[in-house]
Amino acid sequence: MQKVLRVQAALGQATREYLDGQGFTELLPPIIGPVADPGTRGAKQATIDFYGREYKVMSSAILYKQMMAASLGKVYFFSPNVRLEPLETAGTGRHLVEFVQVDVEEAGATCEDAMARAEGLVDFVTESARRRLGDELSAFNRRLNGGVRPYRRMSYDEALKILADLGREVPYGVEIPWDHEEFLSKQFHEPFFIYDYPRGSRGFYDREHPARPGILKDFDLLYPDGFGEAISGAEREYEYGKVVARLRETGENPAKYGWYLDMLREGIPSSSGFGIGVERLTRYVCGLSAVWEARPYPKVAGVYSP
Amino acid sequence: MTEPFSKLFMKVASVRSAAAAGRTFLESYPVDEIIQKAKHGREALYPFSDLDEYGRALLGADIGVKQATRFATLDQIVLLPPIFTPRRLEKLTELQREPFFSDVDLETSIGGLRSRLPITMASMGSTEVAHAASPQLGRGAAEAGIPMGLGENIATVWGYAKRTKASMPSFKQRLFAYLDHLKGPHGGVVVQQSVEDAFDELWNKIYTDPDVEPYIRKGLVAFEVKLGQGAKPGLGGETKVARDVARSLKGKYYFPDDPDLSDQELYERHSAPGTFTEPILRAQLRSLRNNFPRARIWIKTGPFRDLLALLRVAQQERIDAVLIDGKEGGTGMSPVIALKDLGLPTLACLKRVADARVEGIGTPFVLSGRLFDGGHVVKALALGATACSFGRPFIIAVGVGGAKGILNFLEATEVEIRMLVSALGKYRAVEVGREDVGSLDRSLADALNIPFVYA
To answer: pLDDT tens digits for B160-206?
Structure first.
């Protein structure tokens, strides 16, 4: 465990080194606010009593980072998130109720830019792990493949086809279920991208292709060898009218997102970004069997623990 | 008029209008028939009374209707039993004896939920008439082995797990009044979420609740996207709540009278109808599948003119079931003008269902809207419905005899359905089809593409 935490600290350092070197500004992450990301598969948000009114604990700070990128250009933060995940996630080895993700956002960037940035980050961090953490990693018996850039890119449709050819049908329009995602990840030995998810499978803030309605300008980066999802990213919807219509996908009253919509109405620039889970990165680099091994005092769905 | 006088006059007038409204309901709804079924079960199926008991009575079809209706209803459709019944021969061969109506198989799969009968208990919401009786309603539906709906705003108004009012059950108590009484593989619960419930993430709460988890695992939980209601298509939910409740809900709902500023006994509470376009609905349905992969996804819709377009979306998005509520559908509170002027009659909705079937749309459809007996069920099945949903009959039955009243009512209705289906020479409810119905009205016959019985 000590070794894992030391590797984790070094990975954090490498992440900062890479992003700072690319001209990003590290900001302090918001923890609570009137709304959080509603686009998290089945998880419930944690609510706190804020002087008689409700606040949510960030399930992701996506809405805040979009606003901060509008002001500062290139931003990131190490964002602690809480997602009260469905109990079925307790056994995936990839879900924690409390975790940290590095939230990255860049004004003016396209989805392709964000993919290149995500690839650059993972490459830099795994490369530096190999270089600097050789001893620790050999203690885990871990040979880290890294990967040759550019990473393989497959569309959502192609991913579904690969799965179908291997006897695993996924109906069009939904995220790839966790067990299928793990299975797909096992078919590859280097990190790879899935892009062009269909509308409805991701959050309302992922931008719809202007020329291809129903397709989102977004992506996942998956670790190979069954480690699964590393990064989710996208170009953002930033035009008020489009966001309001997309918000209805959550079934909520857009009034709930008042402060966010007010900012969009004023006008903000386009942006793209992604989030990379720190515990999942640690798990992948160390070759751990479950993500709860990559965090002190882990919280797994439904398990009451210190 | 002096002021006290005018107040008294208004009071008397309002009481008289309330009595008149009650009388209208008694006259236009078969309250007595339902009460008899809730009290006596299948004994109530024969129209004997103290005056004409068995052996002395001479009975025949009533050729009148209680009143002239403004629009066509299922009462203009009759069932057409044949003399020659090859399916009865099949059943006879299988059983090695003449079949009886008791041999009819009524088990129905409705949107992934197994039901003992082609009937569900309609979603009732937070209104007190349904909420106060909900423990008995839930128990009755569970013991009868039929799925039950849970309407909007229950959790928001009465609390998810903690009661907002000591005398009223919470959402979860209402849910478990049903789940705790399930026996065997039948049943399932269909939960709606209003825009305001979504604010509190009701579905996420249910989906992550360890107490509900075993039922989710068994596939007994469905989430229902509500696109409208028969009695008020295009309008949101309306109800009245006490001042303390109103105060806690201000900000989430629309209150014409501010509960902080005015002092009233009850406050009108409106919820929003919700805004949809086809792409919004599709994306919402997909997010539901995505977020709650182990829940079944249902849609409840009101009697809208673009029903057929919705049914196509439901088919394409592989929705588990669509419930369609006709304009005669029940309501705890709806504006008179909406009841009168908004929406397609139940039979017109059924016509859209029939059209969808002709197009090859196989999605399970549940019909509701002033349906209250076995005849309604069989006619709806014949025209393409998978099942029917009853609301008001259960409220009356529960008032008569609690959960037992519901079981009695369903026992009577079950026997009615068995008799009618077997009379058609069929022994499975799903086999009833268009050939089994005819219309008493020529234009209706043409519209539904069924025989005009006098032709």
So the answer is: 999 888 889 999 999 999 999 999 899 999 999 987 888 888 999 99
Half-sphere exposure at residue B204, Cβ-oriented, CA atoms within 13 angstroms: 25
A200 contacts B286? CB cut-off 8 A? yes
Q: Do the Cβ atoms of B311 and B356 come closer than 8 Å?
A: yes
Rounded to the nearest angstrom, the minimum Cα separation between B205 and chain A is 6
* Fold assignment, A2-150+235-294: BirA Bifunctional Protein; domain 2 (3.30.930)
* Domain ranges across chain A: 2-150+235-294
Interchain contact A88–B (C-beta under 8 A): yes
The beta-carbon neighbor of A253 closest among B199, B287, B291 is B199
| Residue A11: strand, helix, or coil | helix
| Chain B positions in Cβ-Cβ contact with residue A201 (cut-off 8 Å) | 286-287, 290
Preceding omega of A150 cis (within 30 degrees of 0) = yes
Q: Mutate which of A44, A175, A218, A304 to disrupt the B interface (most B C-beta within 10 Å)?
A: A44
User: What pLDDT is attached to residue B13?
Assistant: 52
Buried b (16+ CB within 10 A) or exposed e, A268-288: bebbbbbbbbbbbbbbbbbeb
Q: How far apart are CA B197 and CA A4, in angstroms?
A: 42
Residues of B in CB contact (< 8 Å) with A are: 193, 195-196, 198-199, 201, 204-205, 207-208, 210, 213, 225, 272, 274-277, 279-280, 282-287, 289-294, 317-318
Partners of B223 in beta bridges = B191, B297
ipTM of the complex: 0.84
Residues in A closer than 8 angstroms to B196, CB to CB, are 253
Residue A150, min C-alpha distance to chain B (Å):
30
Alpha-carbon distance of B382 to B322, in angstroms, equals 17
Give the pLDDT confidence of B48-92 residue by residue, as tens digits.
665 566 666 677 777 776 677 889 999 999 999 999 999 999 999
Q: Do A245 and B204 touch (CB under 8 A)?
A: no
Catalogue all structural domains in chain B, each as residue range(s) with its CATH number: 102-236+271-448 (3.20.20.70)
Compute the nearest-CA separation of B347 from chain A (Å). 30
Q: Give the separation between CA A126 and CA A134, rounded to whole angstroms.
A: 11
Distances (CA, A) of A199 to A78, A155, A301, B144: 28, 14, 28, 41
Give the ranges where A133-273 is alpha helix by DSSP (H): 134-139, 156-165, 178-186, 240-247, 258-266
Select from A43, A174, A198 the Cβ nearest to the Cβ of B208: A43
The pTM of the full predicted model, rounded to 2 decimals, is 0.88
Contact A27, A76 (CB under 8 A): yes
- Alpha carbons B172 and A12: distance in angstroms, whole number: 43
- DSSP single-letter state for residue B96: T
Q: Are A97 and A300 in contact (CB under 8 A)?
A: yes
Beta strands at B238-242 and B266-270: parallel, antiparallel or unpaired: antiparallel
